[in-house]
Amino acid sequence: DAGITQSPRYKITETGRQVTLMCHQTWSHSYMFWYRQDLGHGLRLIYYSAAADITDKGEVPDGYVVSRSKTENFPLTLESATRSQTSVYFCASSELRQGGSPLHFGNGTRLTVT
Amino acid sequence: GQQVMQIPQYQHVQEGEDFTTYCNSSTTLSNIQWYKQRPGGHPVFLIQLVKSGEVKKQKRLTFQFGEAKKNSSLHITATQTTDVGTYFCAGLPQTGRRALTFGSGTRLQVQP
User: Fold this and answer.
1) How many Å apart are CA B20 and CA B71, to the nearest integer?
2) Which end of chain A offers a freer environment for a tag, N or C, measured as fewer CB atoms within 10 Å?
């Protein structure tokens, strides 16, 4: 979807480094989400945000930090990357709260932690 | 916590054959959504089911929501190569933590 962009598309980092994944949406959706996708696990929610300055933990939040100072941006930071955080990360937005309306996903960031 | 199981994990069919994926929740759902993810792509919303026993069709795709709102299915009639991808269900529980939980997906391969 053109309305939600993630950067970078690919990232390789070393264990212990801090890395930030960016997410920007142009729909003015209130809700934004970060998911990670791993084989056999489907999509697991890391963090979500209901509005600017409101964030909450998802299913797998440990090792991640988020912020939402502006409605359109929702960066995800890995404070000290570990190999277990190697994954594909998807940002998504929706008009309504979880399950109330469709999720619109970005193209994803493939992160490799060496 | 809530679990959403999806079967099969993988299915390989000949073009023209039918395909069905099943989704089962450990708890009663408020609604269920279905997404399709093409290889190398991102999940794309297909449909949302809300009512008990609901059936919705999109061309060759038929979606059902169980009477007890604990299971759902997606059936594709006469598959085409464009149907290739992974199909995910995502359920929202009626009670408890109101978080959308995704199934692990069914990967569909279609042999021309």
Assistant:
1) 13
2) C
What does the pLDDT read at residue A31? 95
* 3 state SS of A84: helix
B window 37-66, beta carbon within 8 A of A: 41-45, 48
Min mean pLDDT across A100-104, B25-29, B83-87, B93-97 is at B93-97
Chain B, nearest residue to A35 by Cα? B102
The CATH number assigned to the domain holding B16 equals 2.60.40.10
Distance CA A91, CA B17 (A): 34
Q: What average pLDDT does range A94-101 have in this prediction?
A: 88
Domain of residue B78 covers: 4-111
- Secondary structure (DSSP) of B74-108: EEESS--GGG-EEEEEEEEESSSS---EE---EEE
**Domains of chain A, CATH where assigned:** 4-113 (2.60.40.10)
Instruction: Give the count of domains, chain B.
Output: 1
- Cβ of B5: how many Cβ atoms within 10 Å? 13
Mean pLDDT of B24-30: 95
The confidence score (pLDDT) of residue A2 equals 62
Cα B17–Cα A40–Cα A114 angle in degrees, nearest 5 = 130
Q: Supply φ then ψ for residue A83, to 5 degrees.
A: -60, -30
**Secondary structure letter of residue A83 according to DSSP:** G
With CA atoms as reference, the chain A residue closest to B41 would be: A107
